[in-house]
């Protein structure tokens, strides 16, 4: 993944970078009727090339880490919820709650969704500590 950002502040060997989020209209907001407002994200990046505040920089992160994070955040909870719904319906049928089995399945699905998000939160803390998904400033643009 490569992005361009503006260095907002520098602290030791890290920098806070402002990245503009690209909207669906391609930042051609004057011709777009969507009414969306451009948003900015702030991230902390490793500053090995000694960029200073006010400079535009190129940021890089390994694609496999970005795809892995997207899978973890979007696909795993969905699979957990579907698994919970199916398990809830099966257990409800086994226990004889035939009339409310869908409602029970939905409730168990939401429970599994919450459990999976808790596990993802724990995994996220471990990943942050390991510095595997570190964003690095690779080039000063101007």
From TrEMBL:
Annotated transmembrane regions: 66-91, 103-123
UniProt keyword annotation of Transmembrane present: yes
InterPro entries: RseC, SigmaE_reg_RseC_MucC
Record's protein name: Positive regulator of sigma(E), RseC/MucC
UniProt lineage: Bacteria, Bacillati, Bacillota, Clostridia, Peptostreptococcales
Pfam families: RseC_MucC
Keywords, sorted A to Z: Membrane, Transmembrane, Transmembrane helix
């Amino acid at each position: 993944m490569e992005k361009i950002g503006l260095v907002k502040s520098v602290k030791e060997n890290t920098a806070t970078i402002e990245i503009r989020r690209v909207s669906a209209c391609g930042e051609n907001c004057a011709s777009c009727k969507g009414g969306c407002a451009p948003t900015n994200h702030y991230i902390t990046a490793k500053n090995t090339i000694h960029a200073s505040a006010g400079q535009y920089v190129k940021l890089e992160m390994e694609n496999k880490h970005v795809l892995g994070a997207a899978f973890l955040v979007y696909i795993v909870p969905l699979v957990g919820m579907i698994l919970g719904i199916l398990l809830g319906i099966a257990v409800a049928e086994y226990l004889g709650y035939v009339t409310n089995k869908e409602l029970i399945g939905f409730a168990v699905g939401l429970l599994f969704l919450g459990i999976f998000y808790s596990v993802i939160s724990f995994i996220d803390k471990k990943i942050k500590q390991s510095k595997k998904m570190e964003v690095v400033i690779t080039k000063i643009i101007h």
